[in-house]
Write a structure and sequence with these properties.
- By secondary structure, the protein is an alpha/beta fold.
- Helices cover 24% and strands 18% of the residues.
- It contains ten helices and 15 strands.
- Helix 1 runs parallel beside helix 9.
Length: 319
């Protein structure tokens, strides 16, 4: 608890953008940053960074998180039999999806995690999120914000030789420190520099392994991820958001006994950092390894679901 309290105080952005702020670190993305990011587009090559949204997804039901359930409400068969009630042979198909908002590729909103009963910017958690949803920092507040320079740090490849890995995939339980992040930047070159307003994307390789071997305990089990000690580095770099290819962003098992996601507890309610999880970074990473360019225009807006504390998305990296 003492470590969490000290880290929260060291990395706090409470009041930095005023007492009414609802964007947290997204404030680091200004129009100039978006113009800079747009200038990175050369070939027009687009990479989707989303996992699939289907019944074969990673969720195992923990805390009522299930995989998407896709149901057809109108089908081609209905149209063939003329049972839809439309004139002149008109027919159509409709469908419905039921799913937790954080069942696949997603953002954690600022109302998702609390620290000792406090939400982002020091507000009382119970005044921010009620049964009606997040009335203050609902994910809809970020709907037009998350477009910036995206920077990929491929830790799996950057540390492959040093760790003697069989494949460019960090082992479960590997804690990524600030030193590892700096080493990846050094080895990837100038396009991997991380600074103010950037969206940092970290490939560990766990998603690659899960696609090859099966989901196993991907959702909530052991995983490589950011170390608790990386929080000051993220704070100093003034990144706008961070996303990984893992279920929970930080290393699991967590680094403290009896802890649960202590890095979340620091960076979301105290730093105001947007956190993305379960991103599919493989295709983009392979292309970056070939051409040596590790930054791109990143468009990753959440769905404007009023009052939600998270959102599914289909992030796009455009080179």
């Amino acid at each position: 608890m003492e470590s969490i309290e000290q880290m929260a105080a060291e990395c706090s952005n409470w009041g930095r953008w005023g007492e009414d702020d609802v964007l947290g670190t997204l404030n680091f993305i200004d129009p100039g940053k978006r113009v800079e990011a747009a200038g990175l587009v050369g070939s027009g090559r687009v990479f989707s960074l989303a996992q699939a949204f289907d019944s074969e997804g990673p969720q195992n039901g923990w805390r009522r998180r299930t995989n998407p359930v896709h149901t057809m409400t109108d089908t081609g068969t209905d149209a063939e039999y003329g049972s839809q009630g439309f004139p002149h042979g008109f027919g159509g198909a409709d469908d419905v999806v039921s799913m937790p908002l954080q069942c696949s590729t997603q953002w954690d909103g600022l109302g998702h995690i609390f620290d000792r009963g406090r939400a982002w910017n020091g507000r009382r958690a119970g005044e921010v999120v009620t049964a009606a949803g997040d009335a203050v920092t609902g994910i809809e507040t970020a709907a037009s914000q998350i477009v910036s320079r995206g920077v990929l740090l491929d830790l799996g490849r950057a540390l492959e030789q040093e760790l003697g890995l069989e494949r460019p995939e960090l082992p479960d339980g590997f804690a990524i420190t600030a030193e590892h992040l700096e080493l990846a930047i050094e080895r990837q070159g100038p396009s991997a520099t991380v600074g103010r307003g950037d969206i940092l994307l970290i490939r560990t390789g766990q998603f690659t392994r899960a696609r090859r071997e099966g989901w196993g305990r991907y959702a909530g089990g052991p995983a490589p991820g950011l170390s608790f000690a990386s929080a000051p580095w993220l704070h100093r770099r003034e990144v706008a958001a961070v996303a990984t290819d893992t279920w929970g962003f930080e290393v699991r098992p967590n680094e403290f006994e009896e802890a649960f996601q202590p890095l979340h507890q620091v960076v979301i309610p105290n730093m105001g950092l947007f956190v993305g999880e379960m991103w599919n970074l493989d295709g983009w990473a392979e292309h970056c390894a070939q051409d040596g360019q590790y930054d791109a225009l990143l468009c990753a807006p959440p769905l404007p679901i009023t009052g939600a504390v998270g959102s599914p998305l289909n992030p796009l990296a455009i080179k």
